[in-house]
Design a protein that fits this description.
There is one protein chain. The protein is an alpha+beta fold. 24% of the residues lie in helices and 39% in strands. It is built from two helices and seven strands, in the order βαββββββα. A seven-stranded antiparallel sheet has the order 1-7-6-5-4-3-2. It starts with a strand and ends in a 6-residue tail after the last helix. The model has no long low-confidence stretch (mean pLDDT 93).
């Protein structure tokens, strides 16, 4: 398993941060990298919810596998080349007084295949940049200082 981890302190209470993050299908409203996002039936929130995300010429489907408001959200990312596998991204929100520590961890199973390990590292590099942008966008959407 290969992973990346990003953290930021957002100067807003955890419930306010979750209010933005928990509108799962609306990520395009606060992440400039994403041109479009929409819910896929049947659920908009909770475990099993899914969204379609358009990033440049790539379409991804993200499916919620863990939903624990207001502290944790995990989802799979489908639509990458098969050799990349299916990354899992987990958000953790920890209250810190009037602020919230936000952690994003993305993991990719790379197995023992050297080619897959190389691809996993490249995928995680790009997903790390996306995580950085998501943290900035989440801070902006909550009216916080940029993390």
């Amino acid at each position: 398993m290969t992973s990346i981890r990003r953290t930021a302190t957002i100067h807003a209470p955890r419930d306010e941060v979750w209010a933005v993050l928990g509108e799962f299908d609306r990520i395009a409203t606060w992440v400039p990298l994403i041109q479009h996002s929409c819910a896929l039936p049947p659920a908009r929130t909770g475990t099993g919810a899914a969204r379609r995300v358009q990033v440049a010429q790539q379409t991804l489907v993200e499916r919620v596998i863990d939903w624990e408001p207001p502290q944790r959200l995990s989802y799979t990312i489908e639509g990458l080349p098969p050799i990349a596998g299916v990354p899992v991204t987990t958000w953790r929100l920890t209250p810190m007084g009037d602020a919230t520590n936000v952690e994003i961890v993305t993991e990719v199973a790379n197995g023992r295949n050297p080619a897959r390990s190389l691809v996993a590292k490249q995928v995680l590099k790009r997903l790390g940049l996306a995580a950085d942008m998501m943290l900035v966008g989440l801070g902006t959407a909550t009216g916080s200082d940029t993390p």
